[in-house]
Amino acid sequence: MSSKDINALFLGDICGQPGNRAVFMGLKQLIKDYRADVVIANGENAADGFGITPKEAANLFASGVDIITTGNHVWQRDEIYPMLEKGKNIIRPANYPPGVKGTGTASIKVKGLEIVVINLQGRLHMSTIDCPFRIGRELVQTLAKSNRAVLIDFHAESSEEKEALGLYLDGQAAAVVGTHTHVQTADERILPKHTAYITDIGMTGPLMSVIGGRADLSIERQLTQIPIKNEIAETAAVIQGVVVSIRPETGLAVKIVRFSKEMGV
Fold first, then answer.
1. In a domain, 231, yes or no
2. What is the pTM of this model?
3. Read out DSSP for 20-64?
4. Cα 9 from Cα 28, distance rounded (Å)
């Protein structure tokens, strides 16, 4: 890895107040430890587990996040719609139909290289929206120019769909990282044509929980099959994600490192 490489740090789905506290307490040290040049975080669960409001977005930016990606829960807090409309540094999946509020891409200049982030949403076991493969490829082909690197947050349920998209865009994007399941996978790797890939970067939120929610409520749902409302677990948090090292000359990845750190807050 060259000292000139650009390190992009991705934070897994920020879940409720435990996740927000973990970012506030731990992100600056992570940036220092991994020499991160840019930070991307999935914030669709930042507001009590469902959606995000301007307050949480502002706090994440103040803590060191550069670009916030989201997913299917972003629509649950309409207070965020004006920020989505501005489309500068908080984005929603790009493969929603035309006319939907917001935009699916954002960019930031880092050491002379333009980093472009694309947000996509899967369709298997989720809402049937526009094709993430077609939309993703169209965007990458439009955006992948010289002196530019493309990073993709693929917010999807299916491991099959995530792996397929990673290989479909191998060599065109610097990274395809999965979000949404809140369970970090151990399959991080550099694909043959130098795209960094991981099926899911995990969750930034309460560690002793069921994907961020109270375990007792989840267990009761399984036992009774009654749709009991979920609540965020108030336990010590974990901060999870990956760091992708990008070679400026090619705009592609040379390394991906996965991290999971218990915060004790």
1. no
2. 0.95
3. HHHHHHHHHHHHHHHT-SEEEEE-TTTTTTS---HHHHHHHHHHT
4. 11
Residue closest to 183 by CA, chosen among 164, 165, 162: 162
Catalytic residues: 73
Phi first, then psi, for residue 11 (nearest 5°) are -100, 135
Total number of domains constituting the chain? 1
The per-residue pLDDT for range 62-88, each reduced to its tens digit, is: 999 999 999 999 999 999 999 999 878
Output the six-digit token pair for 93: 């999946």
With CA atoms as reference, report the closest residue to 111 among 203, 36, 49: 36
Q: H helices within 95-209, ranges in order? A: 132-143, 159-168
Read off the CATH number of the domain in which 159 is found: 3.60.21.10
- State the virtual CA torsion across 10, 131, 105, 150 in degrees, nearest 10: 60
The one-letter code for the residue type at 146 is S
User: Taking Cα atoms as reference points, which of 15, 14, 7, 13 lies closest to residue 32?
Assistant: 7
CB 117 within 8 A of CB 40: yes
Does any domain span residue 212?
no
DSSP H or E segment with residue 84: helix 81-86
AA identity, residue 55:
K
Tell me, rounded to whole angstroms, the distance of Cα 38 from its chain centroid.
13
Tell me the pLDDT tens digit for each residue of 134-173: 999 999 999 877 789 999 999 999 999 999 999 999 999 9
- What domain range includes position 178? 6-207+236-262
Q: d(Cα 75, Cα 63) in Å, to the nearest integer?
A: 24
